[in-house]
């Protein structure tokens, strides 16, 4: 159609960096973590948290009066640790180091100590604070939970490639079984300083940078960051960092079997009265099929499937940030997902904007204009 403009043109970030832009990795990092181990939260009502967790697709690994450990079907450590607290809050992520020797190297470089974790987890941790004052654990030699029976992917007929004959497709409307923790997204008022901290200390590398339209010369404002395991492919992002007016958790993502598991699991969540934040669609950066939900405490959590896997050879892509550029297909990003839905959260963010503009950080008036432009795009 004459005059029609495709908002996705140019957003696929196979375009690379200009000379002098951020390289997306540290030259000689202290260690290279292997993966996210788990995320830690505090919540006042563990019964309510566990009910939602089962509907979302977690299994309970351990439950005591004051702690809930949730797991996926993959072997390894629990995905999520929730301790009883007076209020709901995100405590921080834990990353998995290759071994205790790496932990000791990290402790020596940062002036921290390697200390034992509780017996329910086993192993050791080095507890650090990133420049956003978020507690970051790096752990090694934790107990390994055995695999659980997993939800099998369906057999598909694609075009003339017929793999299913005399058999129907009947996905159950039941919780999508979480396989594993995929990534966490964190907002920071000190984005660049925080980014460099993770690259230098944990050996993470950037898959994609986003910048505010018209502000590329000021540098990126979001990065999708993966683990560097050499020739072994890893998730497009294990951690995503974004610049914003407050230091806070944005969302975390958990892998499920396939689109049918994700969609049928979403119908189950909807029938249980839970709130979909945004979905179903397919992302651009990372390519995941996604579906976002709010838990009863307001934390955003994502089911995903079919994400990109990169090895260490791929250089970062660069693309402008826009709300329409968050997905290749699917419904428009909601006000709830973007954090601008009228309510308590948007009021908190508004107060954070006022506070951030008064403080010495990276979130200044021009960055605020860029963020508002993105939210309205």
TrEMBL record:
Protein name: 2,3-dihydroxybiphenyl 1,2-dioxygenase
Gene3D superfamilies: 2,3-Dihydroxybiphenyl 1,2-Dioxygenase, domain 1
Keywords recorded for this protein, A-Z: Dioxygenase, Oxidoreductase
PROSITE patterns associated with the record: VOC
Domain VOC positions: 180-306
InterPro entries assigned to the protein according to its UniProt record, in alphabetical order: Glyas_Bleomycin-R_OHBP_Dase, Glyas_Fos-R_dOase_dom, VOC_core
Xref: SUPFAM superfamilies: Glyoxalase/Bleomycin resistance protein/Dihydroxybiphenyl dioxygenase
TM region(s), chain numbering: none
Gene Ontology terms, MF aspect: dioxygenase activity
Keyword Oxidoreductase: yes
